[in-house]
Amino acid sequence: MSALLQIDNLSKSFTDNLGFFAEHKLQAVKHISFTLEKKQMLAIIGKNGAGKSTLAKMIVGIIPPTSGRILFKSTPLEFGDYKRRASHIRMVFQDVNNAFNPRLNVGQTLDDPLRLLTTLNERERNERIFETLRLVGLYPEHANVGINTLSISQKQRVALARALILEPEIIIIDDALGSLDASVKTQLTNLMLDLQERLSLSYIYVGQHLGIIKHCADKILVMDEGEMIEYGETRHVLTRPQNDITKRLIESYFGKELDNSAWEKPEQNEM
């Protein structure tokens, strides 16, 4: 049985022109391969500038790869096939304060992708909007509320609703939880896990929050300078890191090395 998502030898280079007859090529992502199964969460971690967000943007279709393939259910996805890709893979961006058009209310924000990418009529779109708001813990009445009047927690829920509105199988979360306070972070993490179970979602979490990753991710992919330096089951990678960079990321977050007992008695402040 084929994987839900297969990333095959994906690379991305950027070229800067330095003047006549001179250019500088930056290889931001180098030959990355992995698979994602249904109802699985993959975490992509690494230092700032490791290439994590560039990889995520290629998968969701924002930027084209230089080489390699992205396959959804064994069928290649091509850059520019936005309508097809958006119905299967959606993204929640890091900064919700800059993720929305401030002139729109919540309903209009959620209606945009439905109008552009589906054939639903107005009544059907409204039903989908109200249903999706309920899914993320908001009320249908929030559809009439201006985006700029919402709290950070509510904006995060609207961002998640916008990702869910087209009923995708995969959601990419670009460090959207890292800057939240502990109680909001716990609420949204639990919401994500509940939605994963109810809707059979798969997640790609891009970020540095190893507490969330330890509790939620099935697999971890570690990147450094565009390369994949470790990839495997979460507990195995966190308890038996093979690369010094992975070891430093673990010790920097948890303050110590981890062993299997960390799953038996998790620390209260990890999340």
UniProtKB/TrEMBL annotation:
GO CC terms: plasma membrane
The organism's place on the tree of life at top rank: Bacteria
BP-aspect Gene Ontology terms: transmembrane transport
Signal peptide span: none
Residue intervals of the ABC transporter domain: 5-250
Key word Lipoprotein present: no
Pfam families referenced in this protein's UniProt entry, alphabetically: ABC_tran
Localization: Cell inner membrane
Keywords for the protein's UniProt record, in alphabetical order: ATP-binding, Cell inner membrane, Cell membrane, Membrane, Nucleotide-binding, Transport
GO molecular function, one term: ATP binding
Membrane topology: Peripheral membrane protein
Main location: membrane
SUPFAM superfamilies documented for this protein: P-loop containing nucleoside triphosphate hydrolases
Protein family (similarity comment): Belongs to the ABC transporter superfamily.
Protein name: OppF protein
Organism: Mannheimia succiniciproducens (strain KCTC 0769BP / MBEL55E)
Gene: oppF
